[in-house]
Write a structure and sequence with these properties.
CATH architecture: Alpha-Beta Complex
CATH superfamily: Nucleoside Triphosphate Pyrophosphohydrolase
Strand content: 25-35%
Order of helices and strands: HHEEEEEHEEEEHEEH
Number of helices: 5
CATH topology: Nucleoside Triphosphate Pyrophosphohydrolase
Helix content: 10-25%
CATH class: Alpha Beta
Number of domains: 1
Length: 217
């Protein structure tokens, strides 16, 4: 399995990311390039993908930290007590508030709130394709390199654990699975990228698949 270092990422991956916030993040009438419909063609008939007024803007941080010369992806385990997406593995992030200057500001704010990683330790390097969820969120994934020196502090009541997974695991196609489950009365397929007892799936796995597609092409 290949080893992905910070130097490799700067040279080979950053040029393959979007340098600016993609237009479809600003104009929701434009189609998102990635979505929960990627493996479910029939979901395009759902109103959430048709009506821009139902779309809620969000941003997440795809944070990469280097350990012993190898990049790892920072992830959170959501609390089992949350009303939505309880117990799921996710990137730090959330809905873009009116006070946020944009997706990057939102991702930095949410990352600090959820993990304790302050903005001074985060170096944004670009953006993945915008990802539309079946629950109505249009997510801008902000890719960033994390500098060492921060302390991880899970947000009480929202994050139960913060952990990291080698980037190489997510860049290996053999670790990309298609699983399915019934949602709103219909069977839906989704990407899953299990790592040990960590079940990475859904939108998080979909964005990691996008990261793979962009930086390994």
């Amino acid at each position: 399995m290949a080893i992905y270092s910070q130097d490799w990422f700067r040279e080979h991956a950053v040029p393959r990311l979007h340098a600016q916030v993609p237009a479809e993040a600003i104009d929701t009438a434009l189609p998102a390039l990635r979505s929960d419909a990627d493996l479910n063609a029939d979901i395009e008939a759902d109103a959430v993908f048709k009506k821009a007024e139902k779309t809620r803007a969000a941003a997440v941080l795809v944070g990469l930290l280097e350990r012993d010369g190898e990049l790892h992806v920072l992830l959170t385990q959501r609390s089992d007590e949350l009303p939505t997406h309880a117990g799921q593995i996710a990137f730090p992030g959330g809905k873009i508030d009116a006070e946020d200057a944009g997706p990057v500001a939102c991702a930095l704010r949410e990352t600090r709130e959820e993990t304790g990683v302050a903005p001074e330790f985060v170096e944004p390097t670009g953006f993945l394709d915008v990802y539309q969820t079946g629950t109505g969120f249009r997510i801008v994934p902000v890719v960033a390199l994390l500098r060492t020196g921060f302390d991880l502090v899970p947000e009480p009541g929202e994050v139960t654990e913060i952990f990291d997974v080698p980037l190489a695991h997510f860049m290996e196609p053999a670790n990309h699975f298609r699983h399915s489950r019934v949602w709103q009365g219909r069977e839906r397929q989704y990407y899953a990228m299990p790592y040990g007892d960590r079940y990475v799936w859904g939108a998080t796995a979909g964005m990691l698949r996008n990261l793979h597609d962009r930086i390994t092409r």
